[in-house]
């Protein structure tokens, strides 16, 4: 088999040398100097051809190219710039320590006493004694042979060691060869030849290698495959002459044939030879020579020789006598020599040799001098010399290495060269010598191989006259090919153009816009110097251009002359002045110089809103190369970002910042021509959190439905501070845009409506209104935010421009600067239009909307200001002008918000304004309207039933006569053909009552007078007298209509169904003429199962269809005796009915009937059907609320858990008489709940060290402050806060509490037994009632100011406690809340009977009490202010 030598891997030391050299560079030879390490090295090396060439030139000595080095190949860079190659057929060196050293098989002892070659295969021999005779290591395995007996001391001679007399008359010789070893048994006498051990010599095999024998050939294998082998062993004697049987052939006396003698290395020319049988059995190797050789007339000594070596296939002998025999690399006969010609004793036995050389290094090179094939001849036959020929043959690789296999592979029909050689030491003046074949034909063949990128070239050796005993022997290790060469340019590449980029090898190529482009090409040349020739073809075809010399694979450039527009191709080749490459592949490009048209920019998305994407469309055309892309900058006048075009168009979506954003856009064609710049402005409005601060439906009233009290948005759902008032005359209510009468404000130019400032005009805000102009003869104002001297904002019809005009001014002065924006179209007379404005001082953007679409916008360049005088609707003005720009027309649905609505929200506001409280009835012992809108209920007295008389026996009553007039059924729910609500609730089984015996006379039972009905009962929180107990056929009514059922409305109520025997029971309704506008209450299905529902009739007629939001699934289940919270919402725009049960949305249905108005009284506990009251409710009702407008789902779901609005019930700053702002013991909340002090008190410094800033209450004096009565209801949600510092941490010391008869509604105190602050709530006003409490997390520090706060959240049933603004914990309050009706005490605990205990003994300051739950952040503000 063939073994391919591996190339060397380089180590770190060499890498350092090469790196240092590389830093010198490959140019500037005059400046560079030979590295000292190279100058001192006798055999310097470098990694690559280029680096080695550079070193050779600098240092004036050959440098080996390590990248090309192996066992048989050596390449040197020469100082003259050329390279030399020596390629051998046998290994010449080995790699040691990252260097290649010459092969040296001379044996020398090692530290272990064994003998090893200096530089050869890894083999060791015994010096004598026991142990292995030879050990061979290769390929991860080892192999050893051991002589049967102890060896005598070995005698070393060069590469061999002789063990004398291993048997009597026999020596054992072991020799190191290039790839392994041989062992020869030298039989010196006939007596020794008769020894049975000589005739069958047994060796013991050892090592890890697997040893097999096939056909006499031994093969060694390791983990990496075959590591070595021994060909068929041979034996030969020492015959060296014989009678001249061929005398007649010797024509001249000088033609004397002399045979070479036999040695331990090889047989002589006339030696008798025989095969040897080799047997491997287990761990034993037995060698048996042919007995005939030992028994015959042999001349002693006789040699018996197996050889173990690496496989090489760089040369092969072939023999015509055995034409099918493979003679692999000479490892069988003819052994260690190359035999050429006919045998001395058998002229018909002809040998030839094929030698194969590695020429990989010559690929693409130019041969400089005539190369030579050199053969070292050890012997020739005739003294007159032999005619030895050199042929070129086919390669050994890929062919059968036999005479027949190679017979037809001798090329070119003739020898490349014939030489007469003389190397017969037996002839006068002759000795072994080199034969050099260096004819021109050799150069030709080597050049052809180099040009063809061949990896090998094979030459054959044969005799010119192969018969007649003409032969020669050559040493196999001394056959080489020597070549001196230079590199040829190669690998031409047309690299790139500028512009245009990397070479495009397919037509038509890229577009470029430079008429004189730069072209770049390169070629390789290991001599590191090459020129590039350029060729351009197209509408303009300049002459070829040759560049200056550049380094190998370095780019050479050429800037062309002016090229006309059109299609071009170009290519290059490389030349060194002698050789040149072929043309490279062609590259293509196209010329275009015309820029695209200026982009047209269009916004295709809706009105820009902050945080939402905007989409722009770009369009451009280009007649030449076409539009490739657009490039744009957002807010920057620069080409920042590319956008690919398709058919000259592209779309950009981005999210702009608030205010104005300028987009700069360029079109770029495929040739990189840019268009002129286009600029587009995007004005982006912000959408901020919004709060309605003014909501005016203007339906028969001027009420504000925003639920806020001031321009800062303080919330109170029952607020009326912003209700409008009319000024002037002639203002009435007219028909709105939907045709509803009395539902819009009608102005005649003589008056308008106004109120205190609704919102802050120096912050972002939104206004909107429906307007119907009936006169355009002058300016007509819609909404004005007025200051003392000027308007901050005015939205009006501008007569001069016949447009809606929105303006904001710079200051409250007579002549401010205005930013204005106009609508794009003129408003029509007698046509309703929805107008809106957003003003964003932060984003600097002013926008005008008409009918839900943004129609104009502009940047705000002025500084906006707060108009603190008045908000006007239907006119403009200021403090001294009250009716400027008077409206003649109608205005409806006016909304003012803090924050910025989106376009979609503005459109929605045109249909639905935020919901606002119309009425609210807590029903805590009274029907008073908490909204104070004048809707106090009329609650009928309960009917006290009379005691029925004892029953008298009566006759069977007669059947009543039928009448033509039907009796109305107040429980009828509409069309009798309509199906009952669906569902499958569980219904208790019915049982039949026992049947009485009709023959028995009934015994009358004694009767008990009925108890008077309860009118007020406990509510959902078990608070006594806090719900209306509806008994009998009773119904509470409002004094007039509260809401319109043809507009959006919302309802909520707490209800407890006590009796489900009646099918239909209505809790809330509104009377129409025949039916109620809606029915919120309980219904029962056909099985008698009750469920909650909100039902509306399609028209004001009992026969019209009923439309339901309800059902009998669990979501609607009405449990008897259980409090349930219901919220119903009707959206008149979407025509949807939605029902929430206990804060969870149960269903939404869409009506099919039209909106109609039930303009009668609002009813609680009944409804109207067929013109009469009915559907009476049987149960309890609490906390009714009614809204104008539709609550959102989130708002509706939150109603159940909602607390009442926060209201300050008491505030005591406790600033003494000598403070900066004395308040003494006064309540500054405006509720008049002033304190009085029992016992001595003082005024002390407060937490800020302010004089007289806190109230001091002495412990020993029993000092305590209190109000005359209760401050807050403790059976509802409340909050309490105070600053305090106590003198001593002992006992129980109360800060704030509210007194009951025996207990307190709450206490905030210090508890000495646990050394903590705490808040305590007793479960009832009894001595035995349990309490709940929350403690501080840390112990207080005496004399340190601490802020304490407590919150009771009734809907959540939670008590929370805060210390210095931080939540300490919360606890559930499961007991029924109760009201402590006694005074609020500060500094002690009290009862209504006057008992006082647990005195504070410290200072207290800034005490506050609120109804409802204060935001916890406020406590943090107080604590850290």
TrEMBL record:
One of its GO terms (molecular function) is carbohydrate binding. Residues 1220-1231 have a biased composition (Polar residues). Residues 763-904, 1047-1194, 1276-1417 form the LamG-like jellyroll fold domain. Residues 1-32 form the signal peptide. The keyword Transport does not apply. InterPro entries: ConA-like_dom_sf, LamG-like, PTX3. Residues 952-967, 987-1003 have a biased composition (Acidic residues). Residues 490-510, 702-727, 933-1017, 1209-1231 are annotated as: Disordered. GO terms for biological process: immune response. Residues 942-951, 1004-1013 have a biased composition (Pro residues). It comes from the Bacteria. Keywords: Disulfide bond, Lectin, Signal. Gene3D superfamilies: 2.60.120.200. PANTHER family: PENTRAXIN-RELATED PROTEIN PTX3 (PTHR46943). This is Concanavalin A-like lectin/glucanases superfamily protein.
């Amino acid at each position: 088999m063939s073994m391919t030598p591996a190339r060397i891997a380089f180590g770190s030391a060499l890498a350092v040398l090469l790196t240092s050299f590389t830093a010198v560079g490959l140019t500037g030879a005059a400046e560079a100097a030979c590295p000292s390490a190279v100058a001192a090295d006798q055999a310097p090396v470098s990694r690559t051809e280029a680096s080695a060439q550079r070193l050779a030139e600098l240092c004036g000595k050959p440098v080996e190219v390590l990248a090309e080095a192996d066992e048989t190949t050596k390449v040197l860079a020469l100082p003259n710039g050329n390279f030399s190659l020596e390629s051998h057929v046998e290994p010449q060196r080995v790699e040691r320590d990252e260097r290649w050293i010459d092969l040296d098989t001379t044996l020398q002892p090692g530290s272990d006493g064994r003998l090893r070659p200096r530089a050869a295969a890894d083999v060791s021999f015994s010096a004598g004694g026991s142990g292995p005779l030879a050990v061979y290591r290769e390929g991860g395995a080892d192999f050893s042979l051991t002589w049967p007996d102890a060896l005598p001391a070995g005698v070393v001679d060069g590469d061999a060691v002789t063990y004398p007399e291993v048997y009597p008359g026999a020596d054992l010789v072991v020799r190191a060869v290039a790839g392994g070893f041989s062992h020869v048994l030298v039989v010196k006498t006939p007596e020794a030849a008769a020894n049975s051990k000589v005739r069958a010599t047994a060796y013991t095999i050892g090592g890890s290698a697997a040893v097999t024998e096939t056909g006499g050939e031994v093969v060694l294998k390791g983990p990496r495959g075959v590591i070595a082998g021994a060909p068929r062993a041979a034996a030969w004697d020492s015959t060296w002459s014989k009678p001249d049987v061929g005398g007649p052939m010797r024509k001249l006396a000088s033609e004397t044939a002399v045979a070479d003698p036999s040695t331990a290395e090889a047989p002589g020319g006339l030696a008798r030879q025989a095969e040897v049988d080799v047997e491997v059995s287990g761990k034993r190797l037995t060698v048996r020579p042919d007995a005939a050789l030992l028994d015959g007339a042999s001349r002693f000594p006789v040699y018996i020789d197996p050889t173990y070596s690496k496989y090489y296939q760089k040369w092969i002998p072939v023999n015509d006598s055995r034409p099918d025999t493979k003679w692999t690399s000479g490892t069988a006969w003819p052994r260690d020599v190359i035999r050429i010609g006919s045998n001395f004793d058998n002229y018909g036995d002809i040998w030839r040799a094929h030698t194969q050389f590695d020429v990989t290094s010559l690929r693409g090179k130019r041969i400089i001098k005539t190369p030579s094939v050199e053969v070292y001849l050890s012997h020739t036959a005739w003294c007159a010399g032999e005619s030895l020929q050199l042929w070129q043959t086919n390669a050994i690789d890929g062919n059968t290495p036999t005479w027949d296999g190679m017979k037809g592979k001798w090329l070119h029909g003739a020898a490349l060269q014939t030489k007469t050689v003389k190397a017969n030491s037996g002839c006068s003046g002759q000795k072994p010598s080199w034969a050099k074949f260096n004819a021109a034909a050799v150069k030709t063949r080597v050049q052809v191989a180099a040009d063809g990128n061949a990896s090998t070239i094979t030459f054959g050796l044969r005799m010119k006259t192969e018969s007649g005993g003409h032969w020669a022997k050559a040493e196999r290790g001394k056959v080489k090919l020597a070549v001196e060469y230079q590199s040829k340019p190669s690998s031409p590449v047309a690299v790139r153009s500028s512009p245009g980029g990397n070479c495009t090898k397919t037509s038509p190529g890229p577009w470029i816009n430079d008429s004189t482009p730069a072209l770049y090409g390169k070629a390789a040349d290991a001599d590191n110097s090459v020129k590039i020739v350029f060729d351009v073809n197209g509408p303009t075809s300049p002459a070829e251009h040759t560049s200056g010399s550049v380094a190998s694979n370095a780019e050479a450039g050429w800037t062309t002359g002016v090229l006309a527009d059109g299609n071009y191709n170009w290519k290059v080749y490389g030349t060194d002045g002698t050789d040149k490459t072929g043309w490279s592949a062609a590259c293509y490009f196209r010329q275009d110089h015309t820029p695209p048209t200026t982009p047209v920019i269009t916004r295709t998305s809706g009105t820009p809103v902050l945080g939402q994407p905007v989409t722009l469309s770009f369009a451009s055309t280009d007649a030449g190369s076409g539009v490739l892309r657009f490039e744009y900058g957002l807010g920057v006048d620069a080409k920042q970002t590319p956008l690919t075009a398709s058919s000259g168009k592209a779309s950009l979506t981005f999210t702009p910042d608030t205010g104005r954003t300028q987009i700069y856009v360029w079109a770029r064609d495929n040739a990189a021509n840019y268009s002129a710049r286009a600029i587009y402005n995007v004005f982006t409005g912000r959408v901020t959190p919004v709060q309605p601060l003014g909501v005016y439906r203007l339906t028969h009233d001027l009420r504000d439905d925003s639920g806020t009290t001031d321009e800062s948005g303080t919330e109170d759902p029952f607020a009326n501070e912003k209700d409008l008032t009319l000024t002037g005359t002639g203002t009435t209510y007219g028909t709105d845009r939907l045709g509803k009468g009395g539902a819009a404000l009608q102005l005649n130019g003589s008056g308008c409506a106004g109120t205190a400032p609704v919102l802050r005009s120096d912050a972002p805000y939104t206004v909107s209104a429906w307007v119907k102009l009936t006169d355009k003869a002058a300016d007509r104002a819609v909404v004005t935010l007025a200051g003392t001297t000027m308007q901050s904002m005015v939205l009006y019809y501008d007569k001069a421009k016949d447009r809606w005009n929105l303006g904001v001014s710079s200051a409250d002065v007579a002549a401010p600067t205005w930013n204005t924006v106009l609508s794009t179209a003129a408003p029509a007379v007698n046509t309703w239009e929805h107008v809106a404005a957003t003003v964003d001082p932060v984003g600097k953007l002013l926008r005008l909307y008409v009918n839900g679409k943004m129609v104009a916008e502009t940047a705000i360049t002025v500084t906006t200001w707060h108009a603190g005088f008045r908000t006007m609707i239907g006119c403009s003005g200021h403090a001294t002008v009250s009716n400027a720009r008077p409206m003649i027309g109608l205005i409806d649905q006016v909304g003012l918000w803090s924050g910025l609505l989106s376009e979609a929200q503005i459109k929605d506001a045109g249909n639905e304004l935020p919901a606002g409280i119309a009425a609210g009835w807590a029903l805590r012992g009274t029907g008073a309207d908490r909204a104070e809108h004048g809707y106090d209920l009329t609650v009928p007295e309960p009917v006290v039933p009379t005691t029925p008389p004892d029953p008298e026996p009566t006759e069977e009553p007669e059947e009543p006569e039928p009448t033509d007039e039907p009796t109305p059924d107040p429980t009828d729910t509409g069309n009798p053909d309509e199906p009952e609500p669906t569902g499958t609730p569980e219904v208790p089984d019915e049982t039949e009552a026992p049947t009485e015996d009709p023959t028995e006379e009934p015994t009358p039972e004694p009767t008990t007078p009925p108890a008077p009905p309860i009118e007020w009962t406990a509510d959902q929180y078990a608070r006594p007298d806090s719900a209306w107990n509806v008994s009998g056929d009773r119904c509470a009514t409002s004094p007039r209509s509260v809401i319109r059922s043809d507009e959006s409305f919302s309802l909520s109520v707490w209800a407890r169904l006590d009796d489900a025997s009646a099918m239909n029971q209505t809790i809330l309704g509104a009377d129409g003429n025949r039916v109620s506008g809606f029915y919120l209450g309980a219904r029962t299905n056909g099985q008698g199962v009750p469920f909650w529902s909100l039902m509306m009739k399609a028209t004001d007629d009992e026969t019209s269809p009923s439309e339901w939001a309800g059902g009998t699934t669990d979501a609607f289940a009405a449990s008897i005796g259980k409090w349930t919270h219901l919220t119903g919402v009707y959206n008149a725009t979407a025509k949807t009915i939605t029902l929430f049960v206990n804060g969870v949305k149960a269903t939404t249905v869409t009506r099919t009937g039209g909106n109609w108005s039930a303009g009668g009284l609002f009813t609680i506990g009944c409804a109207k059907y067929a013109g009469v009251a009915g559907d009476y409710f049987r149960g309890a009702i609490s906390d009714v609320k009614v809204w104008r407008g539709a609550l959102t789902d989130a708002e509706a779901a939150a109603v159940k858990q909602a607390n009442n609005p926060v209201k300050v019930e008491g505030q005591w700053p406790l600033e003494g008489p000598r403070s900066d702002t004395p308040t003494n013991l006064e309540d500054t909340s405006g509720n008049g709940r002033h304190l009085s002090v029992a016992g001595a008190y003082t005024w002390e410094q407060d937490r800020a060290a302010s004089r007289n800033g806190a109230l001091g209450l002495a412990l020993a004096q029993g000092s305590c402050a209190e109000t005359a009565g209760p401050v807050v209801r403790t059976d509802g949600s409340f909050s309490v806060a105070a600053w305090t510092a106590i003198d001593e941490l002992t006992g129980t010391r109360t800060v704030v509490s509210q007194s009951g008869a025996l207990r307190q509604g709450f206490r905030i105190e210090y508890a000495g037994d646990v050394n903590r602050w705490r808040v305590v709530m007793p479960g009832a006003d009894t001595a035995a009632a349990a309490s709940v409490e929350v403690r501080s997390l840390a112990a207080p520090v005496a004399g340190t100011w601490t802020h304490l706060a407590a919150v009771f959240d009734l809907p959540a049933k939670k008590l929370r406690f805060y210390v210095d603004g931080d939540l300490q914990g919360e606890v559930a309050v499961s007991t029924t809340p109760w009201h402590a009706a006694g005074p609020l005490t500060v500094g002690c605990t009290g009862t209504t009977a006057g008992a006082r205990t647990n005195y504070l003994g410290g200072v207290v300051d800034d005490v506050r009490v609120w109804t409802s739950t204060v935001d916890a952040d406020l406590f943090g503000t107080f604590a850290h202010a």
